[in-house]
Specification:
Blueprint (H helix, E strand, L loop, with lengths): L10 E4 L2 E8 L4 E5 L4 E4 L4 E5 L16 H8 L5
């Protein structure tokens, strides 16, 4: 990920887990994991999912519904 696209409060993946960018410095970024743990990482270690703003991980809502029904509806389709 280029440093120009790394912004505070972006929604990212870090080691296949959702995270929020809490702080951005010259060479490192501080990501806040859904568990509340914060980790200092290199910008290339995260994948941008959405530019945000996401002020806290609590803003995300869980997806509710029947996964089997959704799978049946989308079977053989391109999404």
């Amino acid at each position: 990920m280029s440093e120009a696209s790394v912004q505070k409060n972006s929604f990212v993946l870090y080691k296949k887990h959702p995270a929020r960018i809490a702080e951005v410095s010259a060479k490192k970024i501080l990501v806040q994991m859904a568990s509340g743990k914060s980790v200092s990482v290199r910008p290339k270690d995260v994948t941008l999912l959405h530019p945000g703003p996401l002020s806290s991980m609590a803003q995300l809502s869980s997806v509710e519904g029947d996964l089997d029904t959704a799978r049946e509806l989308l079977a053989g389709e391109t999404t």
